[in-house]
TrEMBL record:
Residues 8-249 form the ABC transporter domain. The keyword Translocase does not apply. Signal peptide: none annotated. GO terms for molecular function: ATP binding; ATP hydrolysis activity. One of its GO terms (cellular component) is plasma membrane. Keywords: ATP-binding, Cell membrane, Membrane, Nucleotide-binding, Transport. Pfam families: ABC_tran. InterPro entries: AAA+_ATPase (IPR003593), ABC_AA/LPS_Transport (IPR051120), ABC_transporter-like_ATP-bd (IPR003439), P-loop_NTPase (IPR027417). This is ABC transporter ATP-binding protein. It comes from Massilia eurypsychrophila. SUPFAM superfamilies: P-loop containing nucleoside triphosphate hydrolases. It comes from the Bacteria. The keyword Membrane applies.
Length: 250
């Protein structure tokens, strides 16, 4: 029965800021293990949608389900503990801490670090193991003890992806993971994202169409708060509506 439950589901989600309705009835189902990209012109509401899914903003109406369970009204850390982690457009690193320490902090936070002595010992051990494992996955072993602030930009973005996955969440939200990267850096980031999201569910906002079409199993097109299409990359590319509303102008 669980196989039929989607990892993430948005049901007629609406969000208004004052009198302006920014998200206008979005319905979206992301199956377990699927990689899904949200595209759309500037101001379409992509970041707002991310903020609704991760609990940073409350929805005005509709519902959001994570593994079949409503998360509407929950706070970001509660949604995180239920298995959803997100990255941010703006760097979220502790620049003075080492690469390893950044990863360990992220793992500890998600493990629900508490002040009980025994629990603390167990959490520290688990966090250490997770941090080591993620360090290898993101290919930053050689920079393990380097302060995050001195990494190159592309390495910092890789570390951010590592921090996002370090807690073991199975639904990952990445906000413009290749923004500001050169073509070759962005190609490497695509490979990294592909690798670290195997077996997980990915929702990402991305402006770079080669990244979107290279990674996504499904693409959602958001225009002025309305989801005008949600389909495979081939169908999105062929859609006259999408061409007219967005791709033709990018
Ligand atoms: N906290 C807020 N209060 C009021 N309006 C907001 C708030 N956050 C976003 N908006 C408005 O919602 C609209 C959508 O913004 P959003 O940042 O979600 O778009 P976007 O698709 O992510 O754009 P971009 O591609 O430029 O990042 C914009 O008109 C923005 O001004």
């Amino acid at each position: 029965m669980n196989a039929r439950i989607n990892a993430l589901e948005l049901k007629d989600v609406r969000k208004s800021f004052g009198k302006s309705e920014i998200i206008r009835g979005t319905t979206l189902s992301v199956a377990k293990g699927e990689r899904c990209a949200i595209i759309g012109p500037n101001g379409a509401g992509k970041s707002t949608l991310f903020n609704l899914v991760s609990g940073r903003f409350g929805i005005t109406s509709g519902d959001i389900l994570l593994h079949g369970r409503s998360v509407a009204g929950l706070r970001p850390f509660e949604i995180n503990r239920l298995g959803l982690a997100r990255s941010f457009q703006i760097s979220n690193l502790f620049e003075k801490l080492s690469v390893y320490e950044n990863l360990r902090c992220a793992a500890l936070w998600s493990l629900g670090y508490k002040y009980s002595f025994w629990q603390r010992l167990g959490s520290l051990r688990d966090a250490h193991e997770r941090a080591q494992q993620v360090l290898e996955e993101i290919g930053l072993q050689r920079q393990r003890d380097v302060p995050a602030g001195v990494l190159t930009y592309a390495e910092q973005r890789a570390l951010e992806i590592g921090i996002t996955i370090a807690g073991g969440a199975d639904v990952i939200l990445l906000d413009e993971p290749t923004a500001g990267m050169s073509r070759s850096e962005s190609d490497a980031a695509v490979e990294l994202i592909r690798k670290v999201t195997v077996g997980k569910t990915l929702l990402m906002v991305e402006h770079d169409m080669s990244v979107v079409f290279g990674l996504a199993d499904k693409i959602a097109v958001l225009v002025y708060g309305e989801m005008i299409a949600f389909d495979t990359p081939a169908n999105i590319r062929a859609s006259a509506d999408v061409q007219a509303a967005y791709l033709g102008h990018s």
